[in-house]
User: Fold these one by one.
Assistant:
Number 1:
Amino acid sequence: MIEARRAAAGPGVVPIEERDLIVRLLTTLLREDVAGLRTRGRQVTTADGERWLVLRRLWIPVRRADPALGDLVNDLAVRSAFVHHRTLGRGRIRARRLHAVLRVLRAELLRGLDPEPAAELGTGFRALRQEAIAALAAAGLRRRYRPGVFGRLRPELTAGAALGWAGAIGFETLAAHRDHPLYPFSLARVGLPVGQLRRVAPEHRPDLNLRWLVLPASAIEQQGRLPSWWPEADGVALPVHPAVCPVALRHALAEAGLGRLELDRHSPDEFGQSGRFDQDRTALSTGSFRPTLSLRTLAGVRHPAVHLKLPLPVRTLGRLNLRTISRRGLADGALVGAVLRDVLRREPQFTDEVLVADESSWLHAGHPLLAVLIRRWDTPDRPSQGLDDAAIVPVAGLAGIGPNGRPVLAVLADRFADGDLDGVLRQYLRLVIGWQVGLWLRYGIVLEAHPQNVLIAIDRTARGPRIRLLLRDLDSAKLDLKVLADSLGGPAPRRADLSDERLAAGDPRELADLFVTTTLHQCVAAVLIDLCAALRRSPRPLLDLIRPLLAEAVARYPDSRDAGLLETGIMAASRLPVKRALTAATLLPKTRTGAADVNKYYGADAPSYL
């Protein structure tokens, strides 16, 4: 075999983060069956017993996927971080650097396509290369500076310092040291210079001072109430993320009809009406902020139960996912939050177990870069939601490895449950499955329950360990308005109440697909598989808990229209739907996929782990 290493850095050892990105990319392409890679390719076992997936001149080293080996919703897993490309001389070129792998994949997946789809996929691969560059740089920085970050986190995550909202930000930072369970280049922030990552990205745990723009009250729409510490100004003070450059802000102001407002041209960190606003005085009154697991959502160091979600001209999880903020998203998030609180009033068994963020306060100045969502976790009657003695962790971070080298949830089980990790997991599974199934079957609501948007609070009461669910980022749910109206009656929203009609589900299958691809795949199976991989134990006994818990939950709603769909289409199914996020958000345009929402595009499936 001819071996060629086409690498910018020479023939040395490929960095571990680069190998990981190659495996994640190939795994995703197989899962989503991009250009028919999995279904049109043929499996070949060579004389040495190695298995390959072969598509024309492309050879990918594969094995059968197995949850016991850490694999989630795939037929095939990638066993090594390289591909072979057969040459005309019957030899093979081994591509083992990320950019070389991308070149080979692009050449072979486009081969044989008609001109129009080939051009579309070629455009997608150019965008994917941008993501690869950004992800590789971010992954290298994260690995290089992780010891220092963990050193700063260690005292924050011990004893009482790790409790309540003040301690929650440390767990958000830990979660940022894990990758998305399904999207290969989740660390890519296209549009954000690499040099700014250590200054603003959550994995580096920076302290940020916001910049504030003063707008005339007539130019801004305000809903809800501002925090008591909000800066006073002759107008309305609007926070600006420090990663937004002055040029982008000037363009936004001009497009919003506010071009008459001048920005201070002498300092990129100072904005204000006529260039005058005392940023230093404002920083003293508001304090600094730290990013949560989300790059654009910041928690106040002095006011940790208030989070500010700010727009950024940055693309994450795909070229079509621009992280600005629309007015309709703000309005719909507030609406869904109100609906969930109404549901909780009718479901006493969940009243103290599920906490919904208050996302009813926001500002929007008519441009997606001129906005802020003010997310509150405290209420006037319950200032801390009873969470002062709880550890608050995003589900995305439960299997993360902490500064002591052990998974976060295992450490918390030692602290709050006398080391009974399996007992904690059973309690978590019963709660998340029971709540989400009840929402769907009784109320026709399925939340886009990504592990970044769902948190747990774990503490100990006189009756033993207690787990509660915390829900945030509520603007991407799916609602069956008829089922919801039948359950809630008069308070139920109507289609005219939705700012974004995509929230309305037109078919029960939309609810089922969203439930499976977020709650089951990401908040249940991924947590169990990743935890067991970290602890070097089989996930099968824990995965075997899911089906009985689903059956227990569905039995509470025997008259639900969708009970049969959950039983036959999910519990009894041999294959489950998977989200084709890379395909819809980066590789193909909406005109090709037909996806109304690139984050809810399916069309592929994988073996069930139930």
Number 2:
Amino acid sequence: MDIEEASALAATGDVDAIFYLGKIHHLGEGVDQDIEKAISYFEQAEELGHLLAPWVLGLIYYNGEFVEKNDSKAFYYWSRSADLGYAPAALQAGLKLLGFLDDPSFPDDDREVSVLKLVNWWEFALEEGIEHAAHNLARFYHTGLHVPKDLNKANYYLNLAATAGSSDAQFDLSIAYINGLGVEKDFVEARKWCELAAEDGHKDAIRNLGLMYLKGDGVDVDLVSAFNYFKRGAFLGHAECHNDLATMYEEGQGVEVNPLEAYTHYLLAGLNNNELASKSVQRLTPLLPSGVAEGQKLANTYQKMIDDTVWTTQQMDAVSNVENQDYTEERRLKEVDECEEVLKAIQAEEYETAKTLLETLAKEDNLTAKLDLARLHLRQLINDPDFDFAIKLLEEASRSGSSDASNQLGSTLEDGTGTLKNVIEALEFYRFAADQGSANGMFNMGRCYLLGIGTEQHTANAMTWLGKAAHLDHELACHWMGSLYYEGQYIESEPTMASNFYERGATLGHSYSQNKLGLMYRDGIGRDTNLEQAFSLFKLSATSGNEWGQFLLGQMYLNGSYIKEDLNLAKKLFTLSADQGLADAQVELGAMYGKGLGMPADRVKSVELYKLAAEQGVAIANFNLGVVYINGDGIEPDIDLGVSYMSQAAVLGMEEAEEILVELKNKYGIESE
């Protein structure tokens, strides 16, 4: 849309055109920057109900952008945007309202309604995926300043925010376990959450881990580990860690006594207003062999290192923000467009043509082309594939900011495709991809931590990374998080949480999540029983070709659950599923053929299907074959073969099979193998 077209549309009251005019005057895009005009257009759009117009107006007044800073106007406009359904505005409006509530002059008559509005805004923001809102709600209920203090609610919201990857929430949750705030004191849980926060560079969490190892809270006393945590925190600029580190140097705890190092860290702590450290500086001054000058010089050196560390941390934090990288989303989309002819060639399986096109684009530093060219080599889709060249291409693209290339490198190293298998290096590339903002990289980090690939198995770390990927709508991560909460293998089972993650995956179109959520609705686990929802989810999955969805939908038609019994449709669905190799469907279809349900009985076809399932180790399939061959039910009897199948069913845990084998032995003297 150009300015003339926008102006013409705006004159007719087109709200999007009016907002567009506000935006270009605000940013100076194709016109001279004019904040007054921008505000006028945004105000018009806001009056007509545009979602983003009040949000932008709020930002202008909050930041004092070419206008006088005005928090009241910022709050007014953010409130409008929040009420229109814009989640970031709901978060910010809530924070602004909290600031007003903290003012003693806030009218008491308005307080109750305002608190309810704030909670509703933050809960809406949380529903829309802004996990920071959960942490805000946790602190709100924890302090009890404007609502009755409720530690159970506070910890519920803390768990949500911590699981979603908020290091602040992880630290606060660890404090709750340390002090028994709404939960039983549990230093093991506290350490778990502290470690997660520390992994994200949370300075207070790093110090608390040092204190745990120093005092033996939830762990064995380990002075070396305590020293290392304090040192890490100190060089991130944490004053208390400087003081702790100085004490260990002075007393020789976990390190040799070193008055110079002790003096230096006390000095750095004192510079950050630690009074106790300042007194220690005076106490140690006479003990320095070469006077205070050396200590001050070392402190200056350390402070420069600390400043550099903070700068580096800030730079690393920016890596996950695509807008701060040279490899922007705009550039990626442009590169994808440039590869349009390549895509056509690949779809036509003309891989040599695709290779030639990609080589030209790769020389022009098209990172998408480098990635796709590497994949052609790795998957051996072209003549004379060159694995070393493929890895070189991936490394170049990864260094230039392609998270897909970083993730592909991790996968290549994990599988050992064309290179030496190295799961430790694979994990580092997955981490790099995750730091670049890749949901696939985050998922793979979670998978590796959960399964112990390239690192020790660590459930909490796994859930943090899987949670981050799920938050970015990674279908498989949603499914894995649902399964973790459902199965209770690594953590305590929480069916409601499981159903929430499965629902997110199902909404994204993940067929296995649709199956799982459907089962939870069918069986009343984590959700109220709702056969209509179950049927709808199974149908979605089956329509996508998922073998479990076809089987579960077939069961509903077979049993007449919610839907009218339809044996023909049940048979059709079981056949589709069985043809994909699902043993449960092969058993059900075998039973239908054996009993003649909706068709003439066909024992030969029934046995054929049971055998397919039996080969996959299904107990009931082996049992049914045993019965058929022992009784000669519709086929030539074969006692030995029947006993063999029945024995296998017993081995697979079927008690009824064991009872039949005992009966055969007692009555007929037939021994199982």
Number 3:
Amino acid sequence: MFASPECLLGSTGYFWNHVLRKRSGTLYSKITAFALDECHCVEAWGASGFRFQYAHLGVLRQSFPHIPFVGLTATMTPTSIKYFFKSAKFKDPVIIKQPIRRKNLNIWVAPLSTGTSYDDLRVLFPDNLSSADEIPQTIIFYNSRLGTGRMADYLRKQLPASLREKAKTIIRSYNGILDELSQKETLSALRSGECRIVVCTDAFGLGMNIKAIPRVVLWKVDSKLGIDGFYQRIGRAGRDSDQPALALVFVSKANLSGQYTKDGGNPKGKKHRNKTNDNPTETLPPEVELANAAHNEFRYTLPVCKDTKPIFEGALPEIYAGPTKKALAENACESKLVPAINWTLQNDGCRMQPILVAFDDDEMMKTCEHPTGCDKCVMKRLIETNATESPPSLHGIPFTITMAYKAYQNSVPDKVPRKRKAPSRTIVPERIAKLVEDIKAWRDDALKDLAKGLAGMTVKIIFPDDKIAAIATKAKHIWNEGDLIAALKECGYSLPESFISAYTEDLHDCIRRSLEQSQPPPQLEQQLRQAARRPRTLVSSVPVVRSNVAAPVHLKSPPFCPELPNATGAHPSFNSVPRWPIPPPTSVMPVVATRTPLAEKSASEIETNVEPKEPAHPSGYNLRRSQRNKRPVSDDENTIPVTTPRKRRNKKGAN
């Protein structure tokens, strides 16, 4: 006889009124044993009040004291075992344990690259997808009932157009609030192979024994999830099969910010931050962790080995503990995980070992075996075999997205090519205004058919003027369609869900043509740059002396300036001369004056004159200081001092 706790312990049910209360009758005498399956739910659900009947299963033991009881589970810590025995009224029980390690299960942890979007899940779809069978069957565990529907809708939009008609069959959601018919349809489609991805909560896992699911994804973890529920989720992959299965855990920055405290949480009034692991992809070397172990300090980055066993044994009460009643009553928090999960995500050794420690497994000192294993063990083997340049992939998921591989990349920055910053160009306000007008003209022509097909829609609603102005200001960074898509996302568009996503290629062509029309031809631009870089001759400050004797004046020839080509002839698409700044020629030429020697002239013929005011230098250089340093000419002196101006000291980088 199969029954739920609600069926057996319901006050209006037959079993409660005719069997448990009377403790007699035909049915009472025929019951020979009770088997309580998934008995870890007694603490997880009964203590939290989610299904409080689980906490009253001890009534069965009291009503049937003469028959055997057995509790079955794959995930129960020593603390949970004690709670179960007390709650179910077991007396002098015998504990039978077997290793829980799954040798075909690979646990990979990947940091999220975005905060709120589901873009990281695009990795679940193969490139050039043409058939639904190309998608490996996947179960995605989500922590929110409402979130399962939103994520399923997002994943359906990632399917190619040829599969959109069957999108609701290929990708389905499952949670406890759905009706029974929808749940049965999801299970039937998953078993038949029509459904390839299921986004679900823990309600999907209970009692389900679907074989050969190659991939299981955990989308972040929170404070309401215990280590038993964590292992239950990832254990849905690769059941009853020897083929390698993948459990991919996406973690946020908040998931990796926890720090160990003796009470398993943060001290009151203080906000902890793991100073030794601020970067999710950076880890401390093992020798540093062993040095910390020598000081009897347990940290979440501590690896599991014989040398560290005395250290983590002191933290076992916190590692065995699940979510507290306070954590279950409050809203879920991604930064306050239970210690066992924190240790699994942040430790520098094998990820499977902290899980085995939490369940007091006899194989806790064994790491993952080749060729399967966690991302930490796989990365260690890649380094040992010098195969880091060819990381593996499993069921279409590349190993390069894992925390272990990214940590290795950060440790060897010389081997990782850095992405060059996209060049930018200078666009004057007149050209931006012209670009705005060109984009508006393109919008009115390209989007008019789309606007007519939607009731109450206009082109200005699809692509508003303020968005066009924002895109125009970012045009100096737009060199290809990818840059345009990034600019649209910065302006608030959700791509590829937005209507404008189908017109990004045409919009980029419009921006390119508009900038080319207002850009000067390459030949003219080169001549202008050469003229701007040419050094200008400084004005000499040698004083001019007037004399009765005519003195020849020698003028230096102006510097050569090449004739600018005709703009209209140089570029066929150029209709008018561009308004680019052309450097004017030097207006003041240096003058060198000669005079007759004083020995050949009489004193009466010498006539001094006040030095003329030097014109303003075209470069704006202040020459008044050099003027003050000149020695004035006196009437009683027979010589005229001639001062040579000090050379201007060019600033670093100046032409």
